[in-house]
């Protein structure tokens, strides 16, 4: 069942009347975690502000599920928000921050706030102040405060950007598990592609006010609709090739593949760095010259260049040694082909 539905949402920049959002349409299912992601001028922040009621759209329709009517209406429900800086009150304890804004008797408010703290593992920190706890626990406090009023929708606005890298992965997984277990519908605003993929059920990618693609993280990564979406989630290699009845001729060498017979002349070969396999010998292999190696701990990215100066990235074992200027043989485990023009 849809909790939120947008139809042809448009928003113009007040200064120069250029489009900030253009005909944005999608639906958010009840209990779903949907990440909205894009670069600095994608329009995602404007879209979130419009959904929260902080600014108006110029045209289009915005609907929310009305539980009393059992259908969509324009009435905005209670929405919880976790802001990027968490917006905690420094003069209040963790418990008092979560209690802030809750309605009911003192006993009811206390019980509800304590239940949320316990849910997020903060019950032993209830009498602490924000500056006395870790940044990760400040995030948990902000999330507890957003959950306490039992909203039908929660918005996480760049919530993980301040977290320490060594704890970030675990906290994202913990947050997803908590939200899914509670059955809360969530919109996540983030420019971090890794966050967007790891926390969401579905992911929407925006560019210059247009919704480029909305799908599961797996489908978006493996089957992007265009180059922008593909490269938003890490470098995708693209090399030009000539299709013949035998295979594809590229500047890195020949690829023997039956798919070449269905294409005419120039094509693009698309593949991710992890789809490249480095080989020891030349047999049925492509060849490139090592230009750069970047070490990332659990892997390294190696830039290989052809004779024309075109480079590709290869993901390799962190233990393998590459020499700048040396030639490397490789094959492609898998790749996609599309017409070049």
Can you give the helix content as a percent range?
Answer: 10-25%
Instruction: Let me know the largest β-sheet.
Output: 6 strands, mixed
- Shape estimate: globular
The CATH topology label of the largest domain is Rossmann fold
What's the tally of helices? 8
Taking the alpha carbons of the first and last residues, their distance comes to 41 Å
Number of domains: 2
What's the architecture of the largest domain, going by CATH? 3-Layer(aba) Sandwich
- Structural category: alpha+beta
**For the record, what CATH class of the largest domain applies?**
Alpha Beta
DSSP strand content? 35-45%
**Average pLDDT score:** 93
How big is the Rg? 25 Å
Low-confidence stretches: none
Strand numbers in spatial order across the main sheet: 6-7-8-3-9-10
Give a structural overview.
With 341 residues, this protein is α+β, with helices and mostly antiparallel strands. The protein folds into 2 domains: 2-232, Rossmann fold; 237-339, OB fold (Dihydrolipoamide Acetyltransferase, E2P) (Beta Barrel). The protein has 8 helices and 20 strands. It has helices at residues 44-52, 94-99, 106-119, 135-147, 165-182, 193-199, 217-222, 227-232, and strands spanning 2-12, 19-29, 33-38, 59-66, 71-73, 79-82, 153-157, 185-190, 202-207, 210-215, 237-243, 248-250, 253-255, 265-271, 276-279, 286-295, 300-305, 311-316, 327-332, 336-339. The protein has a 6-stranded mixed beta sheet with strand order 6-7-8-3-9-10, sandwiched between helices. A 5-stranded antiparallel beta sheet has the order 13-12-11-14-20, with no helix packed on it. It has a 5-stranded antiparallel beta sheet with strand order 15-19-16-17-18, with no helix packed on it.
């Amino acid at each position: 069942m849809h909790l939120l539905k947008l139809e042809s949402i448009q928003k113009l920049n007040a200064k120069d009347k250029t489009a900030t959002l253009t005909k944005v349409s999608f639906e958010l299912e009840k209990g779903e975690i949907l990440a909205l992601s894009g670069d600095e001028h994608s329009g995602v922040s404007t879209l979130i502000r419009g959904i929260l009621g902080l600014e108006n759209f110029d045209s289009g329709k915005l609907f929310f599920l009305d539980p009393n009517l059992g259908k969509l209406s324009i009435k905005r429900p209670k929405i919880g928000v976790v802001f990027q800086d968490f917006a905690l009150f420094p003069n209040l304890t963790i418990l008092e921050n979560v209690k802030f804004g809750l309605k009911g008797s003192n006993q009811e408010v206390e019980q509800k706030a304590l239940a949320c703290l316990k849910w997020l593992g903060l019950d032993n920190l209830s009498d602490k102040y924000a500056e006395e706890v870790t940044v990760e626990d400040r995030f948990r406090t902000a999330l507890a405060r957003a959950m306490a009023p039992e909203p039908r929708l929660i918005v996480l606005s760049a919530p993980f950007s301040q977290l320490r890298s060594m704890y970030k992965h675990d906290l994202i997984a913990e947050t997803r598990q908590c939200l899914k277990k509670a059955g809360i519908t969530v919109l996540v605003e983030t420019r971090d592609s890794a966050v967007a993929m790891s926390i969401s059920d579905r992911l929407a990618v925006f560019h210059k006010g247009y919704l480029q693609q909305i799908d599961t993280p797996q489908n978006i990564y493996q089957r992007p609709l265009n180059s922008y979406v593909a490269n938003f989630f890490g470098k995708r290699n693209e090399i030009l090739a000539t299709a013949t009845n035998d295979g594809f001729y590229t500047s890195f060498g020949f690829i023997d593949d039956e798919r070449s017979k269905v294409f005419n002349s120039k094509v693009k070969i698309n593949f991710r760095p992890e789809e490249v396999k480095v080989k020891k010998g030349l047999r049925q292999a492509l060849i490139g010259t090592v230009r750069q190696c970047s070490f990332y701990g659990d892997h390294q990215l190696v830039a290989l260049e052809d004779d024309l100066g075109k480079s590709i990235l290869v993901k390799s074992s962190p233990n393998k040694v590459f020499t700048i200027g040396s030639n490397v043989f490789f094959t492609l485990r898998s790749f996609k082909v599309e017409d070049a023009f």
